[in-house]
Design a protein that fits this description.
The complex is a heterodimer of chains A (86) and B (213). With 86 residues, chain A is mostly helical. With 213 residues, chain B is an all-alpha fold. Classes of the chains: A mainly alpha (86), B mainly alpha (213).
Chain lengths: 86, 213
Amino acid sequence: MTLDRYTCLETVRRLDDYLDRELSEPERHEVERHLETCDRCLQRFRFEAAVVDDLRMKLRRVTVPGELEARVRQLLRRGGPDEPVA
Amino acid sequence: MPTPPPVDETPHTPPHERVSDAEFETLLMESLEPAYRLALRLSGNSEDAQDLVQEAALRASRFRHTFQKGTSFKSWFYRIIVNQFYTSTRRRKNTTTTSLDSLSDATDIFLFARSAEAGLIASDADPAANVVSRMAEDDVARALAALPEEFRAVATLYFIDDLSYQEIAEILGVPIGTVRSRLHRGRHMLQKQLWKVAEELGIVRPPALAGER
């Protein structure tokens, strides 16, 4: 049988979970089977994957202010732990 | 599995191995960069992010006995930061976020559909050449900061770290199904907001100028 079990709609509905590797193995297999034969959906998936990669790259790039570490260390010296009642 | 800190001021201490003061300080300082990244993306600006990290560090220090040695310190600290973020936004009742209604009608593959309508996607297009790739980091962060808090929290944890839905659920203290639905909706909202920012920046043309509907 070479018929796709998933329609385009069913495939796109699983796009996020597929990209996040949260699909079950049979579902992932069916999505990939659909993508092998549907250029339109493949293009959508590649686009979404590129968007997620770009967002990850840009949102992860931060520079920690130099003074923050010193301030936190100072806070730790001042405020000790609240010990639970034994 | 991270042990969540208590939500109230009453310490509840299950029997587990605790970290020493020196170990705690080392773990905290090692987590400072991811902690600041989370705080910056949640709050949207460096000043608030630094306050958030300091408040969370103080709280973590006070409740250090609830951290279970051998579990993920970063996840434990993330949870304190997110809770502190919710507390501080509630306190300030900052209304700079975009209303849920204006974002919640974003459909699946919003950015792809709009990009295709605007003629930005050729059939053989390089998938990396999307609208987001042409935006600066601050502009992307501005779009994220416009999401309603509960959607922003899930999306931020998702984008700034390699966490599974299960790990995000544990950090936020919500069921995994809630993470999945908020993340899916949050991603669609973010795409809509990114498009709006791209229009403001002139990266794409607004519908009226582009002659679209």
